[in-house]
Amino acid sequence: MKSLFLLNPDITFLNFGSFGACPKPIFEVYQDWQVKLEREPVQFIVKTAIDALENVRQELSAFVGCAQEDLVLVTNPSYAINTIAKSFPLQAGDEILATNLEYGACDRTWEYYCTQRGARYIRQEIPLPIRSKEHFMEAFWKGYSKRTKAIFISHITSATGLILPVKELCAEAKARGLITIVDGAHVPGHIPLHLGELQADIYTGACHKWMMGPKGSSFLYVHKTHQAWVDPLVISWGYRSPTPSESLFIDWHQTSGTRDYAAFLSLPACLQFREAHGWDEVSAACKALVRRHAPRFCALMETEALAPISEEWLGQMFSIPIKTNQPLELKRLLYEAYRIEIPVTEYNGRNCLRYSIQGFNTEQDLDTLYQAMEALKKEGIIY
Ligand SMILES: Cc1ncc(COP(=O)(O)O)c(C=O)c1O
């Protein structure tokens, strides 16, 4: 399957989680759209792309289980979270409740806007390893106070690679009258997503990770009841549009000046690729491979997994807790000496090696990682 991708065959690629990788047939569609743009830039940007984007939103919203008019295409989850945090009606003293496992860029975004407005961003500590859903919920809600206005939570965490019980969190947050904002960067194409059932008020997902789209393709979903307060990050022609559509939400957020729409326009090709290659089964096999090898890596590092090794907590990634005093040197050695692309992740001062398994990975790739880790342990780089 690796031949379907553009990836360098000399590298053991265990880092799909960071930026995905676009299969060749999808990348060809992406380049075709770019050629179409350059043949007739004016027609394309003012007409062809706009019509085609409606089709993209239709297909993508069906894939993630929401109404078409509640989803806009954005370049990345960072853009989506900035849009929300900047617009959020925060007053001095308000609190946004998150965990200490959030992604650094989004964490900084909330910190920035909370600080500007005299509000507090609460990184509630989640003790690891997580033992159960109840254990997680209990730890999370300790961060709640009467000043909490919203919760912000990753559906799948970045450094620790864990699926969090977001559906239960959203239900509980609703019961407490809180707005729910979910960072689902790792979710589309990775685990099933039905926004109607999840009941989050606001959700962002990256399509350039596990959906295998070109870089710069993501979405922001906002439930109708919240669309009125979400300002566009870039004010452009969609504000008081001379040609308004039926949705102010789409008009406001879809237009942000001249740009290359090709990544967005390639998303139907991602869905076709999944269909054509039976990706639900491919993904299930990847998840099984992730879980099968996880105990072996924990045993090597004489450590415990960060949550139960089960379908409930793990998808196509596993973060092996490691100890190292030289995280940068470790990363360098893995890439340069062992030709393995894998991130050394960091959370709360601790480190993990996070492997991602995609359709092109094999048992052999994990054996290669294991052997490298054995050698690095002998050298004292990890312990
Ligand atoms: C949990 C999580 N949220 C948000 C992001 C941000 O994605 P982007 O850089 O595409 O905005 C990432 C990226 O890896 C992530 O892992």
What does this structure look like?
- The chain has 383 residues and is of the alpha/beta class.
- It has two domains: 2-24 and 278-378, Aspartate Aminotransferase, domain 1 (Alpha-Beta Complex), CATH 3.90.1150; 55-260, Aspartate Aminotransferase, domain 2, CATH 3.40.640.
- The protein contains 14 helices and twelve strands.
- The protein has helices at residues 16-19, 24-39, 41-64, 77-87, 104-116, 133-141, 166-175, 195-198, 248-254, 262-265, 267-276, 279-300, 327-336, 363-378; strands spanning 12-13, 71-74, 95-99, 120-124, 148-154, 179-184, 202-206, 218-222, 317-322, 340-341, 344-347, 350-356.
- A seven-stranded mixed β-sheet has the order 2-8-7-6-5-3-4, with helices on both faces. Strands 9-12-11 form a three-stranded antiparallel β-sheet. Strands 1-10 form a two-stranded parallel sheet.
- α5 (104-116) links the parallel β3 and β4.
- The protein is globular and about 65 Å long.
- Pyridoxal-5'-phosphate (PLP) is lined by residues 18, 76-78, 103, 105-106, 154, 158, 183, 185-186, 206.
- The site of pyridoxal-5'-phosphate (PLP) has 13 residues, from α4 and α5.
